[in-house]
Design goal:
It contains 17 helices and 13 strands. The chain is α/β, with parallel strands linked by helices. The chain folds into two domains: 247 residues, 3-Layer(aba) Sandwich (Rossmann fold); 155 residues, Rossmann fold, CATH 3.40.50.
Length: 426
């Protein structure tokens, strides 16, 4: 089987779990005799293409005078994204003068409709512009390639998936890694919501990364339950020897690793840290990542008089993540709404006991993790303190947690995805 797959990022150039999931899934599908043509807005040349054919959308020329593009463009509303809804962008980037100037000067529409367009491949100020152009490119790729079905990951690629389906008539599968309700709570951006809903409605099948996400799609988007299948994410084996990272501090280390945004619950991590330190001062806390709440968290840590015990590392990737986990005694994911959450699996794979919120998709499949409500900072602090101070508890979670995670393989998840593909041809 051949699959035309659309994704916004691919390792090593990632900003979160989406790229990691795409990488693991494509490698898993290769073990099930499934060839993948993976289209990204911008390829950098250092991606692992051993299991896929990578198509760089920035290299695709299109002639918008052709009727196929003219008709498609009529369906795409040309939109300019506002700074308040840029996902994944850091405060440092917001303050960058160049970004501010880009927000003030809307790009000429001709740049989107030109023969060639250079994608940034990021989540920048012209994100909707890139989403629209990506859909145009998708129609060109769809008309010129040989494949059996289309698979689109997350809302950024749904217009591309729909365009490819209309050109080819091939079935469309959309993959829900997160919804606008996860990212924004109840303050949803209507444009993003509409794109998500249209993608799910136009799809022949919808894959959700957890039952939590599946229920949101049914209840908040009105998608028929029989149309949505849950396939939990997995974790890629490292294939590397376990790191023995030296640490420059004698205290134990508790780590938060993720985007510092509303969705990830960094505020609750900070409040729990203060409660732990009140009982055990020989602990250091690390917040690794970037996001729109970073400055607020720094100020809150200072106000709680924890600056000497709290560290902000910025965004970590690849081996930096591995080294951070190797130094970690307890990993915490206090997400307010987490469709799945791959990082706890990576932590458990590294023999680190984890505390996760009950409001996460990964809590559906993990037995050897301590689970708390994201808002219950007392329970979170108790869980962290217990793993740091009662020797038998972390040893038990390390041993059985590692075994549990080692059985969550991408090839197994890919087998379930392949079953979804096969169901469309029965």
């Amino acid at each position: 089987m051949k699959v035309l797959m659309f994704g916004w990022e691919f390792p090593p150039h990632i900003t979160g779990g989406l790229g990691t999931a795409c990488y693991g899934l494509t490698r898993g599908l290769a073990k099930h005799n499934t060839d993948v043509i993976f289209v990204v807005p911008k390829a950098f040349g250092d991606e692992d293409t051993s299991k896929i054919r990578l198509v760089n959308a920035s290299d695709i020329e299109i002639d918008t005078r052709e009727s196929i593009y003219h008709d498609l463009w009529k369906r795409i509303e040309y939109m300019e994204i506002g700074s308040n809804i840029i996902p994944y962008i850091s405060p440092e980037e917001f303050e960058n003068r160049q970004v501010i100037e880009e927000l003030e000067h809307r790009k000429d529409e001709k740049s989107v409709l030109g023969r060639k367009y250079e994608f940034s491949g990021k989540y920048g100020t012209n994100l909707f512009e890139e989403v629209a152009r990506y859909a145009l490119v998708a129609s060109a790729v769809a008309a010129s390639r040989d494949y059996d079905l289309i698979h689109a990951h997350d809302w950024l690629t749904y217009p591309a998936g729909i365009a490819a389906k209309k050109v080819s008539g091939k079935p469309l599968v959309v993959h829900i890694h997160a919804t606008e309700f996860d990212r924004s709570g109840e303050r949803v951006n209507q444009q993003v919501y509409d794109i998500e809903r249209e993608g799910m409605m136009e799809a022949d099948k919808v894959i959700a990364v957890s039952n939590l996400t599946r229920n949101i799609c049914i209840e908040r988007y009105g998608i028929p339950a029989e149309k949505i299948v849950t396939v939990h994410n997995a974790v890629e084996p490292t294939g590397k020897e376990e790191l023995q990272a030296g640490r420059a501090v004698k205290e134990k280390i508790v780590t938060f690793l993720g985007r510092i945004t509303y969705q990830k619950g960094p505020e609750y991590f900070v409040e729990a840290a203060r409660k732990v330190l009140d009982r055990d001062p020989n602990v250091r806390f690390v917040m690794a990542g970037q996001g729109d709440l970073l400055n607020k968290m720094i100020k809150r840590v200072a106000k709680l008089h924890m600056s000497s015990k709290f560290h902000f590392t910025g965004f970590l990737r690849g081996e930096e993540v591995d080294r951070m986990l190797a130094m970690t005694d307890v990993f915490v994911m206090p997400s307010v709404s987490e469709p799945f959450g791959i990082v706890p699996l990576e932590a458990m794979r590294s023999n680190v006991p984890v505390v996760i919120s009950k409001q996460s998709g990964v809590s559906e499949i993990l037995k050897y993790a301590l689970k708390v409500d994201f808002w219950d900072v007392n329970a979170m602090a108790d869980a962290i303190y217990s793993l740091l101070n009662y020797k038998a508890l972390p040893e038990m979670f390390k041993k059985y947690g590692k075994e549990e995670v080692d059985n969550l393989k991408w090839e197994n998840a890919a087998e379930q995805v392949k079953a979804v593909y096969d169901s469309l041809f029965k």
